[in-house]
UniProtKB/TrEMBL annotation:
Keyword Protein biosynthesis: no
Source organism of this protein record: Linum trigynum
Any matching Pfam family: adh_short_C2
Gene3D superfamilies recorded: NAD(P)-binding Rossmann-like Domain (3.40.50.720)
Gene Ontology molecular function terms on file: oxidoreductase activity
InterPro entries: NAD(P)-bd_dom_sf, SDR_fam
Key words of the record: Oxidoreductase
Signal peptide limits: none
Protein name in the entry: Uncharacterized protein
Recorded family membership: Belongs to the short-chain dehydrogenases/reductases (SDR) family.
UniProt KW Oxidoreductase keyword: yes
Amino acid sequence: MFHFLKLEIDSFADRKKNETSQSSSIRSPLLRLPGKVAVITGGARGIGAGTAKLFAANGAHVVIADVLDDIGAALAVSIGGRYIHCDVTLESDVEAAVNLAVTWKGKIDIMFNNAGIPGRDGSITNLDPGDTNRILAVNLQGVLNGIKHAARSMIRTGTRGSIICAASSAAVMGGLGSHGYTASKGAVVAAARSSACELGEYGIRVNCISAHGVPSEMLVGAFRRILGRAEMAAEEVAEIVGERGSLVKGRGGKVEDVAYGAVFLASEEEAGFVTGHNLVIDGGYTCADGNMSFIYKED
């Protein structure tokens, strides 16, 4: 009797061991990017940092590429990632960032071309060609460098990857950024679409994210400069956007809104049939005139 019971217990233990072994190879439903390898340019702070944290929380291995070495390296350590100094205007720097991911984990699955600068405000009649060239070098050529080297690596390893490019609501609607910035972001959307057309043959998806009203360092700095209020906080910027720059009244943008959008586009399971798309995260601001909502009210 006891011998039979021992055999049953041993058999049960073996079955549980096998079940545990099999379940460990199954993707956890709680992780949306398990085992994926990502490079994020401009990943040291703001939207890039928020996305790096969310990618890592969803199981991805993240390489942060930025020129802000101290905070970038600290963030990489905190999420178990890697950091590399990267000026996106230098093609060799972007190539090195992609190569770091491949050396570290053998591949790159996700490229988030997020690095960008705002450029100077002012009239088109006083446009400085030097400033415009600088904006285009970072915001457009930097993105093209990222698409190029991520695509090369993905094609070489046969990876059906996701390339995400940071555009802007300024690419959708005029009057939301400097002339140089607006031009650069509009070009990013066009470049992403043409790249999606070519790279789809390899199963590589290319999309944009156009954020609006997200109180990143860039936007808060612009509000402080334009309104002449050096002490203005991110919370106040979000409040202003929620009241004046969103159809969802009282709800401004958050870094996390964009990060979740990036996770969606990065995920093959969730966005595997999405490419050449510009995901606008703007509280509906660029799609309708909220000042006209009164016409829908009944007497």
